Amino acid sequence: MIKSERILLRNTLGGKLEVFIPLNPNEVTMYTCGPTVYARAHIGNMRAYIFADILRRTLEYAGYKVKQVMNITDVGHLTSDADEGEDKLQKSAKEQRTTAWEISKKYTELFLKDISNLNIQRPSILCKATDHIQEQIELVKILEQKGFTYITSDGVYYDTSKFPKYGELAKLNIDGLKAGYRIDMGEKRNKTDFALWKFSKPNEKRDMEWNSPWGRGFPGWHIECSAMSMKYLGETFDVHTGGIDHIPVHHTNEIAQSEAATGKKFVNYWLHSNFLVISKNEKMSKSLGNIVDLDTLINEGYDPLAYRYLCLNTHYRKQLIYGKSFLDSASNSYNLLKDKIKELDKSAKQVENLEKLGDKFKIYLKNFKSAVFNDLNTPRGIAVMWGVLKDKELTSEEKYYLICDFDKIFALNLSKIRYENNIPQDIKELALRREKFRKNKQWVEADKLREEIISKGYSIKDTSNGYVIEKI
Ligand code: AMP
Ligand code: ZN
Fold first, then answer.
1. Per-residue pLDDT tens for 296-330?
2. 325/336 Cα distance (integer angstroms)
3. Which atom of ligand 1 is nearest to the CA of 36?
4. Residue nearest to atom 9 of ligand 1 (CA)
5. Fold for domain 294-416?
6. 370-389: per-residue pLDDT in tens?
7. What's the pTM value of the predicted model, to 2 decimals?
8. Which CATH class is domain 8-273?
9. What backbone phi and psi angles, to 5 degrees, belong to 221?
10. Which H/E stretch holds residue 346?
11. What are the extents of the domains in the chain?
12. pLDDT, mean over the chain
C-alpha cells in the first residue's frame, strides 16, 4: 500500500470540507468533463482544466497514483442546455462549410495544443463521445428496463420524478421550479427531464447519426459522461471535476442516470472550479463575445505559463477577474521568479540527502503542504514559495530543492531553469520541441531531436524534475 498524505477537499455534494479517502488506496479514479469541440477553447475554459491538473498533481504529490479520464464532447451538446436548439458541432460545421467530423478534429487538436502549452498533464484516457455510442445505447436500455424513461416525438427522455434524490448535488428546489414554471415544456413530463437519445429530424441531414432501438439519432449530452466514466473507472469512483456551470444540469443529470442504472453511489467527491470573469460576474463566454484564446496571448508575447501563474494566484473556488493589467503583473512576477531562481543557480548544488537539511527547510515544506493539502490553496502555496526565495537563513541548495518540489504541483517549468543556464537558444528550442513530442508520446520525433541536440555537442537527460541539458 502506498503511504499517502492527508488531503482536505471541499465536496460540492454536501458542501463540506472532507478528508479525502479514495476507494482504492493505491489508485485514485478521477473523471474530468472535457471540452465541447465546436469552437476554440478560451482561457476561461482553460482555467477549468488547469484546476483539474492542479488537483491531479496534488494527489500525485501526496503519494497517490491517479487514473484520470477526460471526455471530448463531439456530439449531442445542443445550443441550449435544455435539449433545445441545434447540435453545437453541426451548427459550427454549417458555418464553416465543413463536416462535424472535421470540426471535431480541428478543435480537439487545438485543445491538445493548448493543454500542452499550459503544462496540463494529458489524462490517462481521453475518450470521445462518438467512439462510445454503443455504451451510451446500452445505458439507455438499462434505464428503459428499469422504468426511468419515456419516449416523445423527438427523443427518449429521463423522467426525473422517478429519481427521488434528483437535484441533491445542486440543492435544487424542484417544487420551486415546478411552481415557477411558465414556458412551454413541449412533451416533457417534468421541467427537469432531459434527453437521453434524440431522433434525427426527418428532413435534417446530420453528419453524425446512428441507429438505435428507438430510431436513428444521436445521444443526449449527459449520457456520454455517465457511460464513459463508468466504463473506464467503475460504477463508483472517487473524484469528478468540472466548472460550476455543470452543477445544476449536467452533473445533476449524470448522477440521476448513473445511480438509477446501477443502484450505487456514482461519485464520492465532486469538485467544481469557479469562472474566469471579465468584470464582477461577467463570465468570459463565447455567447457574450468577450473571449480570449491562448494563441492570442502567445501572439502578444505572453508566456502561456504566465497565465497558469495567474490562475494559481486565485483559489479555484473564487472568481478570477481577468484583465490585461492582471496578466501583465502575473507575467512580471513570473519573470522575476525565474530570475531569482537563475541567481540561485550560481551556488546551488544538487541536494543529495534530505535528512541533512535544516529545520527551516522542513517548516517551509510543511507550510507548503498544509496550503495545498487544504483544498488546493495554491495562492498560499505561491506565497510560501516567495517566502523561501526571500529567506536569508536557507541555503541556495535548500531553496532550489524546495522550489523544484513545489513545482511538481505548480508546473511552471521552474525546475528546468538552472540547467538551461548558458545553453544556446537553438539548443533550448530543440529541447522544448522534444519535450512536447515526449508529452504527446511521439517517441520517434522526440528521439530525432535528441540526436540533433547531441550532434550539436549537448546531452539531454530526463529526470523526475524535468529534463537537463549539459555540454558534452
Ligand atoms: P465547454 O467546452 O463549453 O463544455 O466548457 C468546458 C469547461 O469550461 C467547462 O468545465 C466549463 O465549466 C468551463 N468554463 C466555461 N466558461 C468558463 C469561464 N468563463 N471560466 C471558467 N471556466 C469556464
Ligand atoms: Zn461531462
1. 999 999 999 999 999 999 999 999 999 999 999 99
2. 16
3. 2
4. 243
5. Four Helix Bundle (Hemerythrin (Met), subunit A) (1.20.120)
6. 999 999 999 999 999 999 99
7. 0.87
8. alpha beta
9. -65, -40
10. none
11. 8-273, 294-416, 425-471
12. 91
